[in-house]
C-alpha cells in the first residue's frame, strides 16, 4: 500500500521542482488557505531552502562534478525528497541556521577542495547552537561567536571563538584547535567541555566533562583530565587549575547562575549578557555585596527581585537600563 502523503511531502515536492515546473498542488493551496500560521510556516520552509542554495552556490566550481551531477539527477531526486522531508519535519523546532549547515554538508559544499568557512553568533539576550560540518555541536551562550574553518590540504579544523560555549567535538584524525583572545590555543580531541572566553574578561575558563584537551599559550601548556576546571590569566599568561563544582560552570545551559561568594559586579555582568540590559551600580556596592546560592528565574526583573531579597539593595528599571542602589 502506498504511504499517504503528508503536507510536508507536498512542500518538499514544491521546493524540489525546477522554476519552470513550480506550481502549488491543490492540497497545498487548500492547506495554506486554512490558517495564516500555515502560510508563515510555508514561508519559513521556503526561506530555509533559499538560504541553503545561497550558501551552496560558492565560488569554487568543479565542471567534472557538475556533469556527474547532471548524469545522476534523476536517481538523486527520490533521495532528496526523503532527505528534505526529514529536514523540514524538524524546522519548527530547530534554528534555520542549523538546518542550513546540515543542508550544506549534505549537498557537498564541504567536500570540495576549497577551504570551508562557517560562522554563528548569539547576541546579548539570546542563545543559539550550531552543528559544524565535521559533526561537532556547539551551544553558544549570549554574546558569543564561533567561526569554523577547515583546510582540506592541511587537514586542520580551526575555530576562532569568543564568548561562552559548550563544545561536543566529534572524533577525527584531523586536529581541532580553538583560538581565543589573549593568545590561548585549545587543542581538542573527541571531547565535551565548556569554554568561557569573553573578550572583555580577564580570564579564560575551561571545564572538561569528558575526553582530553590541551591549553597552550607560548611556553605554558596544560593537559586537562575529565572533571577538571582550568583558568588562563590573560595578563600573566599563566595557566592553572582551580577548585569548583564542574556542573556549575555550565549551569547556563539550564538557565542557572551558580554564585559562590560572587560579587554583585560579576552577577550584573552575567545579567547584562543574558538579558541584554545595562546595569549601573551605586559606588561602593560592587565588591562589598556578595552572593552564595543559585538563581534560576525567567526574567531579569525576577532575578533583581531575588537579589534584593538576599541583600540590602534596591533597583530601578527604565527600558533596558537598571540602576542599583542601597536600600
Question: How does this structure look, described?
Answer:
The chain is α+β, with helices and mostly antiparallel strands. It is 32% helix and 34% strand. It is built from eight helices and 18 strands. It has helices at residues 7-16, 26-34, 36-56, 63-89, 96-106, 246-249, 264-275, 300-310, and strands at residues 116-122, 128-131, 137-140, 144-151, 156-169, 176-180, 184-188, 191-197, 203-210, 213-217, 220-224, 229-233, 238-242, 257-263, 278-281, 290-295, 313-318, 321-326. Strands 1, 2, 3, 4, 5, 6, 7, 8, 9, 10, 11, 12 and 13 form a 13-stranded mixed β-sheet that branches. The chain has a three-stranded mixed β-sheet with strand order 15-18-17, with helices on one face. β8 (191-197) and β9 form a beta hairpin. The protein is flat and about 70 Å long.
Quick summary:
The chain has helices spanning 7-16, 26-34, 36-56, 63-89, 96-106, 246-249, 264-275, 300-310; strands at residues 116-122, 128-131, 137-140, 144-151, 156-169, 176-180, 184-188, 191-197, 203-210, 213-217, 220-224, 229-233, 238-242, 257-263, 278-281, 290-295, 313-318, 321-326. It has 327 residues and is of the alpha+beta class.
Amino acid at each position: 500500500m502506498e504511504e499517504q502523503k503528508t503536507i510536508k511531502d507536498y512542500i518538499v515536492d514544491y521546493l524540489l521542482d525546477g522554476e519552470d515546473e513550480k506550481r502549488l498542488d491543490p492540497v497545498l493551496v487548500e492547506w495554506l488557505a486554512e490558517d495564516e500560521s500555515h502560510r508563515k510556516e510555508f514561508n519559513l520552509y521556503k526561506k530555509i531552502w533559499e538560504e541553503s542554495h545561497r550558501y551552496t552556490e560558492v565560488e569554487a566550481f568543479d565542471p567534472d562534478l557538475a556533469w556527474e551531477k547532471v548524469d545522476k539527477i534523476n536517481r538523486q531526486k527520490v533521495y532528496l525528497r526523503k532527505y528534505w522531508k526529514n529536514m523540514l519535519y524538524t524546522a519548527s523546532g530547530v534554528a534555520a541556521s542549523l538546518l542550513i549547515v546540515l543542508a550544506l554538508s549534505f549537498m557537498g559544499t564541504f567536500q570540495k577542495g576549497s577551504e570551508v568557512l562557517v560562522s554563528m553568533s548569539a547576541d546579548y539576550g539570546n542563545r543559539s547552537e550550531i552543528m559544524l560540518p565535521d559533526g561537532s555541536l556547539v551551544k553558544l551562550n549570549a554574546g558569543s561567536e564561533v567561526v569554523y574553518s577547515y583546510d582540506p590540504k592541511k587537514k586542520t579544523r580551526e575555530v576562532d571563538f569568543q564568548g561562552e560555549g559548550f563544545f561536543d567535538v566529534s572524533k577525527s584524525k584531523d586536529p581541532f584547535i580553538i583560538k581565543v583572545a589573549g593568545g590561548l590555543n585549545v587543542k581538542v580531541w573527541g571531547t565535551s567541555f565548556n569554554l568561557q572566553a569573553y573578550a572583555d574578561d580577564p580570564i579564560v575558563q575551561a571545564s572538561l566533562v569528558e575526553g582530553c584537551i590541551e591549553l597552550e599559550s607560548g611556553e605554558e601548556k596544560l593537559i586537562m583530565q575529565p572533571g577538571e576546571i582550568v583558568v588562563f590569566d590573560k595578563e600573566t599568561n599563566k595557566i592553572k587549575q582551580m577548585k569548583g563544582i564542574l556542573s556549575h560552570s555550565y549551569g547556563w545551559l539550564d538557565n542557572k547562575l551558580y554564585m559562590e561568594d560572587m560579587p554583585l559586579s560579576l552577577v550584573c555582568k552575567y545579567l547584562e549578557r543574558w538579558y541584554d540590559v545595562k546595569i549601573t551600580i551605586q559606588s561602593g556596592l560592587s565588591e562589598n555585596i556578595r552572593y552564595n546560592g543559585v538563581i534560576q528565574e525567567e526574567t531579569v526583573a525576577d532575578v533583581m527581585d531575588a537579589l534584593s531579597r538576599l541583600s540590602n539593595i534596591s533597583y530601578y528599571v527604565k527600558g533596558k537600563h537598571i540602576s542599583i542602589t542601597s536600600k
